[in-house]
Amino acid sequence: MKNFSIWLSLTVCVVAFCGTALNIGWAQSTTEILTRLDQAATSFAGATASIRVITHTGIINEDETQIGNVVVKRSSPHEMRFLINFAGPDAQAIALRDRTLQIYYPKLNTVREYDIGKYKDLAQKLILLGFGMPGRELGDSYDISNLGSERVESQDSVHLQLTPKASEVLKQLSRVDLWISLRTNCPVQQKFYMPGGDYRLVTYSDLKVNPPQLPTSALELPKGAKREQMN
Amino acid sequence: MSQELVPFFMKQPHVTFATGTMIQPLGGFDTLTGIDLAPFNKLSGGFRFINGGPFQGDDDVIVDEYYAREKKLAVGSTIKLINHVWRVSGIFESGKLARICAKLDVLQSLTSNSKKLSQIYLKVDDPNRAQPVVNDLRDKMPGYSIYSMEEFTSLLTINSVGLLRNFIGVVIGIAVIVGFIVVSMAMYTAVLERTREIGILKALGASSGYILNLLIRETLLIAIIGTVVGIIMTYGTQWLMMHAVPASLTQETVYNWWPITGAISVVGALLGAIFPGWKAVKQDVIQALSYE
To answer: Which architecture characterizes domain A2-229 according to CATH?
Structure first.
């Protein structure tokens, strides 16, 4: 009985010690990661990647997958532009340029343009979460927890859990999980949790940061398409 | 949202039927609605066609009578919507919460939204159970916008569009102020021009009260006739809208505004008339007679 008590005490001590050590390690690690993101953001000029988006509808446990590629380019110190091309039967392209969100529908040969005005920053921060984004910006907008290292898409990455600080954002987005590659300091995977159990899982592969050839034309939608201003 | 939610809704307690639609904006207030005709008919009681009938081909649309009249469409006409040419296969009586309808799967495919819906309509076994069903679904599906038809149709009023509501408020405010000033200025000028006549009346022995009484009665008569003519003219604009742009613009006669507009014109006219009239009757007769 005495031995059992000693073992129990030792076990509790070891668990408590490990927990403390892990907490310290995680806290340091988070700070390190955010610092590294700060540094990486200064040299980030653009990126290309393959993208897979799984939209999960929780209540019916349904997944819908879209596959394509993404091009991100920093057009000015505080301005990102991107173009996402989805392939397959539901092919479409989504581009963000200045304050205009453009959606190209190939079957209609039409580009619909939405002036997203005051939501521009939010759109950039959500869609491009982790791409060239300084760690301090992440810390400003989200409460961050470090869930440790994981291997995603054959890349060592750190798993961060972000909870939006703004109550308006929380109504639409309850949590974001972000896997940051330790090699590229860009996201390998993002998981956006909506209230009610739905989520969107975005996975990036073949990521090339600051590719040598990234002309502005890589972010253009077809010029011959009909343009419709939607708002 | 996913089309697979429809079978899920069908399984919910008290839900007897469910069907989804897809809505594509066309600019302004017009939309193109994708429907699955058989289920939509089952839910809505069916389209009553004035001309033609349901879709025959994938590129067919059906339009309501107002839209057909505005765009001068007949069965067999073609119309370009969302950069796609459609053929009108039927014209239906309005009142289906949609003016232009196309096949759901065709619209989903064209807009790269296969198996996606914009809205799902549910039918419940008892109208009194609608709200409890809505509440139950809101609990099960937080983050989704779920409304009873009563709540949904109330969202379609201008009051639900913040900017439009403010814009209309500003337009009404400007119209009230400008209307008031115009009526006042018109009467002011009219009475000012009659200073000499007022002088003649005074020279003939008319008292100030008699002259003011005369002016007020005349002003009141003009204001009332003006109000009535203005109200009649609103029916003219209503007729014009109904015939020129029946599907886009509608004008509702708000009877509560009749006494308000009447009061604006009467008060404006009286204020405009009394001030110069009072000045004229207080003037010396010789000065009033020499007024030019």
So the answer is: Clam (2.50)
